[in-house]
Amino acid sequence: MNKTTRCSLHRFLPAFALLASGLAMAPPAKAAQPHEHMHDGPTVLRAARMLDVDAGQIRENAVIVVENGLITAVNPPGTPAGAHEMDLGDVTLLPGLVDAHTHLAGQLGAGSFTDAVTRTELYGAFNAAKYGGITLRAGFTTVRDFGGDVTVELAEAVERGDVAAPRVIPSRHPLGITGGHCDVTGFAPGILEAGPERGVADGPWEVVEAVRYQIKHGAQVIKTCATAGVLSMEGPVGAQQYTEEELAAMVAEAARHGVKVAAHAHGSEGILAAVRAGVASIEHGSALTDEIMDLMIEKGVYLVPTTYLVDRIPLDDLPPLVRRKAEEVLPMARESVQKAISRGVPIAFGTDAGVFPHGENAGEFEVYVSMGMSEAEAVRTATVHAADLLGVSDRGRLADGLLADVIAVPGNPLNDISVLRDVRFVMLGGRVFKHVVGGRDMHSMRDAGP
Ligand SMILES: [Zn+2]
Fold first, then answer.
1. Contact in structure between 198 and 184 (CB atoms under 8 Å)
2. pLDDT by residue (tens digit) across 367-384?
3. What does the pLDDT look like over 115-154, one tens digit per residue?
4. Whole domain around residue 331: which residue ranges?
5. How far apart are the first and last CA of the chain?
6. Total structural domains in the chain?
7. 155 and 216 in one domain?
8. FRET partner for 97 with CA separation of 20 to 30 A, picked from 122, 348, 375, 434?
9. Ligand 1 center from residue 33 Cα (angstroms)
10. How many A from CA of 8 to the centre of ligand 1?
11. H-type helices in 244-344, by residue range?
12. How far is the CA of 413 from the centre of ligand 1 (A)?
């Protein structure tokens, strides 16, 4: 039995929930991993600059000591004897970036709308391994991913060190109403019907059951479709789908497990219901009103804009109904993000990667800055703010005791945010996955040292 995963904007990306067997991810031999770069003892990273994200300031002559996967010192008076030294030269160090909205199990294209009935879940597993690697090498060391069992397994594979991909906060199956954006729509009765186990749930008690089931099987966040969406065959894109009562039941049950709720929402009524019900983030938020934005500020609800995709969604690949919806809602969505930035709504970086090519995630920064956000604040959306939304205090800044997730870019991102598209070095948990020297990635060779 074969199901597709329901995802926020593009329901039809096959997302392959049946990977639980781990068939496609048998642990690879260590020798097959060219990025393997563990050195015994501490590593000292040196660079011309580092960005203090909290202060929004560049510090010259950065020194970061890493040991056992953690940052153990930043600019200490001395460095440990016998450490493995890596001098990265004329670059700026930053904490690894966080994308709070990805779909690593798929990539939108002309075939996506039939993948649900023509491909198996394992297709998504291979996709996730490939796109996870691309995303990590683009400087994103953590993602919150909406992609069924595939990215639940990916999260664990990354923690085991078996796969080169970002750390993953997975949702398993998004929750939605029967026939809604998070259900499978567009096929004849009997094809890909689903219930609470696959996230399709109606009424508060079924919603509670669906939350419990996702968490039982690895969800670390609950994703829901509060309104209709673009990349699915159901009705008006902004229409409210869950009632406030259903959303409140979902938030309350998730909270009992210490889990937050992320709500895909385009139309004003659905956004307002989700914010009132207590969700942690609004994904897309295409029709924000002053009333909604003030309530989001008051309650500390994040907007996850996903707005770079407006320029990059492959419109020609979409069926006519879906294309019409995209052309209607996307310009509105961009205006809405602009208003949110001006008004000071909390923003956490998120892209919907998969709707546009994985690896271009950093394009989202340029949109925020073009809308008047400062470069320093733009970096905070993908570091301290995103970490706050994800509920992880062990990353998002360069400080001792935090995870050794460190990247480097040329130049100074506070002068030119586009340098974040040109990541030259990626370390995750103390392991180096990318190191470009003179235009050549040295990560498959030994760097220096022992
Ligand atoms: Zn999405």
1. no
2. 999 999 999 999 999 999
3. 888 998 899 999 999 999 999 999 999 999 998 999 999 9
4. 19-24+97-131+138-390
5. 51
6. 2
7. yes
8. 122
9. 30
10. 4
11. 244-256, 268-277, 290-299, 309-312, 320-343
12. 27
